[in-house]
């Protein structure tokens, strides 16, 4: 029962929680990704980045299907307020794609350098990423709290 004059608690626009609610998000291909709401795409990109890097490093992020979302992931990091992590990912992309990231993202695997050629350069960036200078989970949840999911 609400007492007269007692303000109602604020209503959160989104009750989606990161990262848990994104663990099983079914995204089979880029077309399915493109159909997601914009805020969900942002959280999905960050989730996949964290999952891949924590499992096998930045090179793994680029070599798996997540490699087709490099531009979107850099933008997602900027959108949530993690520009240092976005810069780190951009530097890793420059190392792993010495000829430049392809304009057609579906061609990412053909332009990816061999791991042995770039390991010494990209592994220090893995260490920097894993130090989590920017609190990605907190930033994503703040972003989701202000965006439509």
Can you give a write-up of this model?
There is one protein chain. This protein is mainly α. The protein has one domain. Helix content is 58%, strand content 0%. It is built from eight helices and no strands. α2 crosses α4 and α5 runs antiparallel to α7 (115-130). The two termini are 31 Å apart. The model is unreliable at 1-13 (pLDDT under 50).
The average pLDDT is 88
Biggest sheet statistics:
none
Number of E strands: 0
Helix count, DSSP H or I runs of 4 or more residues: 8
Q: Give the end-to-end Cα distance, rounded to a whole number of Å.
A: 31 Å
Percent of residues in β-strands: under 5%
Q: What characteristics describe this protein?
A:
single chain, 149 residues, mainly alpha, globular
Helix-strand layout with pairing:
Layout: H1 30-34, H2 38-56, H3 58-63, H4 70-80, H5 83-96, H6 108-111, H7 115-130, H8 136-146
Helix pairs in contact: 2-4, 2-8, 4-5, 5-7
In short:
The chain has 149 residues and is mainly alpha-helical. It has helices at 30-34, 38-56, 58-63, 70-80, 83-96, 108-111, 115-130, 136-146. The protein is built from eight helices and no strands.
